[in-house]
Amino acid sequence: MSLSDRLAAAGAVVEPQVFDDVMDRGAGASLDTKDAIKRNIHYLLIEEMGTELDSAQADEAGMRYRIEAKLQDLLNQETTPLSAEDKRGIIADVIDNILGYGPIETLLNDPTVTEVMVNNPQTVFIERAGRIYLTDKHFVDEAHLLRIIDKIVSRVGRRIDEASPMVDARLPDGSRVNAVIAPLAINGPMLTIRKFSHDPFTAEDLIAFGTMSRRVAGFLEACVKGRLNILISGGTGTGKTTLLNVVSAYVPTDERIVTVEDAAELRLRQAHVLRLEARPANIEGRGQVTIRDLVRNTLRMRPDRIIVGEVRGGETLDMLQAMNTGHDGSLTTVHANSPRDALARLETMVLMSGIDLPVRAIREQISSAINVLVHLARLRDGTRRITQISEVQGMEGDTVVLQDIFYFDYSMGIDEAGHFLGHVKSTGLRPVFMRRLEDLGVTLPPETFEYEPPAHR
User: What would the CATH number be for the domain defined by 105-194?
Assistant: First the structure.
């Protein structure tokens, strides 16, 4: 019995022109034809292996082998001519749809792709080396894309439906996922995945990428070991979480670390790490656990260090208070356009806590809590660079005093390929907190703060 006859017997809706088109082409099938065959053979596979597919989570490797054998058997029995390449493509795509993430599975496995952006079922973009490209990948229809989104979010205990049409989730490797569906998404379901490397980046990787220099790496290592409170700022997609991962690797292994995140992304290598993740409300609107709730709870967990993935609301006040009450060496990130803007954002977020505090009191809390501000930017050439490292020196009147320690030299220009030639340089100023680090036995070579003038003025 041919595949078309078996599909019809199973109750699948088969489009006659699909097989007519294949017969006309002979050697290979068109894209539309292959999509229809994939859709129909997928339906038949579910009909024949329905209950067995439910065990895919328990034995994925064995299930993959059985599915591949069944698909090969189905295609071998089919009299409609398909090229060997077409058959391999159909088998790979159907397996990806059942066990993986459909058309974007290959993109997620590509180490050169840093972001996958699904605008609608027919439009998929990727980011590679800081540039955005349109791909030839597409989903069969909206229902297909919705199934993939639901598979992703359900694995981490999240849900997405008409009552909750927007969700933040993560993949098993920590990659960040955002999905929006109707009625909020007008042109169809939207899916954005910011990928994380399977092997977390190290300081050496960031030095090789040009994100920071070896001097800066040594400086940040000294700041972490000297238990300074560090705030990493930057815009969306500038690499704040990546840098936070790298910097946190400098925390000594004998310290108790508690991490607090909206969606768990940090991957610390120390043994004594406790990870907390916020939880959204359930379908009844209950059970929500916010970042602020978790930050408060960490104070009862005897942490040596508190690492908050990102402060974005009232939890900022609790974080600042923790930094000011013995939890030195804490780390966090914030969205901002510059170190000065980062301080302004912290002020605003403290006010979001609902506690009416004078602005001067808030600034005093900030100036005594934060020691170092590290700012990242994504430049026009697609690279992510540390552009400024500043020391918070305290208050002068009603103003928080910032002193730049390192800066990115834009004046070095751009090469013929459009890449920035500049790198992070020292301002020549020695931070005030160096005395504190030396008292703790943390030293830096003198050349760390050796003045490096701009290329030209």
Answer: 3.30.450.370
